[in-house]
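R.M. (postdoc): so does anyone remember the format we settled on? I'll just put the structure tokens first.
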């Protein structure tokens, strides 16, 4: 059975997902093309050898619609003979792309494949793909959940209430994320994974100088009277300070069989060891990272203590803190170079971005095993174990 390896992984710096953001003027097709082009330039790979490009995009609307991964690879100069597809598993879309790519290699369906992702949240606002839908739920779903589900921010509040996570704890976690990301930037930890674009050479959203008192002054982001009446247990502590911001960015991961990498004289960064996808209560929505982590560790034959580095997407601080409470993870090994609260969370790109950060981080820190997981809308989560080579 072929072994799937990561030969290289690259990402753009992450821009603020607003009109004033550094990447706002870059079409999403060109933003993804930039990471694809950088991947080829860095490895010297002939793109004609690529069997498929699998891209993750969440808001498939406008310039991000209609299998935009195909347009991106053509914009990047790949031969017209290279196919592409675009997948949506919400925030885990490009992590799922990594899974599909690696599974295709292991199955013998692919020899060389690129998994990638992009999101330009400033140009294609979240939710615009649902605008005009008369009924996005359908009758069966509405009958099963007659009281209705809630948005992700309220789900993050419900998680904070269930796991008794205080506002102070979430704010301290957020400050740590920014401090780690700023330190990583200063010492050049990201230099080997970044492909500067449109004049942006570092992640735009990292902030320094914050304190618990400054974050405590921020207002709750999701409180409303009707939801407060429905969920009296919520104390309304999720703010813009302890949640990920709207972001623009892309990332790409080159995956191939170990045999083909050897024939091409390419040295892999990591082996794709084990994969899992899990689901959980769609009301709480963001808790599937817990069963997904347990599931992938079981498949890998590993324990939490065997994992040297974790990348757990910081959509909200409460998600990572609840995950750590349930799994017993040492937060000193989680998002060691900062997470999405500081770096940003360009939805469709985040799975590939986390994988890029993880494999480069394992080499920086000399770790053997890394585990990546992320919460996804609808109560879903992907989890991946990689082994440094």
């Amino acid at each position: 059975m072929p072994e799937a390896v990561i030969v290289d992984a690259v990402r753009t710096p992450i821009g603020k997902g607003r009109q004033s953001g550094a990447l706002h003027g870059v079409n999403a097709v060109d933003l993804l093309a930039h990471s694809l082009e950088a991947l080829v330039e860095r490895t010297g790979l002939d793109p004609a050898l690529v069997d498929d490009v699998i891209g993750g995009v969440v808001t498939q609307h406008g310039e991000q619609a209609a299998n935009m991964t195909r347009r991106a690879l053509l914009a990047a100069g790949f031969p017209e003979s290279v196919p592409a597809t675009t997948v949506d598993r919400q925030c885990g879309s490009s992590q799922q792309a990594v899974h599909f790519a690696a599974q295709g290699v292991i199955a013998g369906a692919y020899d060389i494949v690129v998994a990638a992702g992009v999101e330009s949240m400033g140009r294609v606002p979240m939710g615009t793909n649902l605008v005009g839908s008369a009924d996005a739920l359908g009758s069966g779903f509405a009958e099963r959940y007659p009281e209705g589900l809630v948005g992700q921010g309220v789900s993050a509040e419900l998680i904070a209430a269930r796991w008794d996570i205080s506002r102070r704890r979430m704010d301290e976690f957020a400050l740590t994320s920014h401090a780690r990301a700023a330190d990583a930037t200063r010492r050049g930890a990201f230099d080997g994974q970044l492909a500067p674009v449109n004049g942006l050479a570092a992640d735009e959203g990292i902030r320094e100088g914050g304190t618990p008192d400054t974050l405590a002054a921020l207002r709750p982001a999701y409180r409303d009277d009707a939801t407060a009446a429905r969920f009296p247990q919520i104390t309304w502590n999720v703010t813009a300070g302890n949640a990920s911001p709207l972001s623009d960015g892309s990332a790409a991961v080159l995956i191939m069989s170990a045999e083909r990498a050897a024939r091409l004289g390419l040295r892999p960064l990591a082996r794709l060891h084990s994969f899992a996808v899990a689901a959980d209560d769609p009301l709480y929505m963001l808790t599937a990272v817990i069963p997904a982590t347990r599931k992938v560790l079981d498949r890998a034959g590993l324990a939490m203590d065997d994992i040297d580095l974790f990348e757990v997407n910081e959509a909200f601080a409460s998600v990572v803190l609840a995950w750590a409470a349930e799994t017993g993870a040492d937060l000193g090994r989680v998002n060691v170079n900062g997470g999405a609260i500081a770096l940003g969370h360009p939805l469709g790109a985040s799975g590939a971005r986390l994988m890029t950060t993880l494999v480069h981080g394992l080499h920086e820190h000399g770790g053997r095993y890394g585990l990546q997981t992320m919460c996804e809308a609808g109560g879903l989560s992907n989890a991946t174990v990689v082994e440094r080579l």
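R.M.: ...and that's the designed sequence above, right after the tokens. Also worth knowing: Residues 117 and 349 are 4 Å apart (CA to CA). DSSP finds 13 helices and ten strands in the chain.
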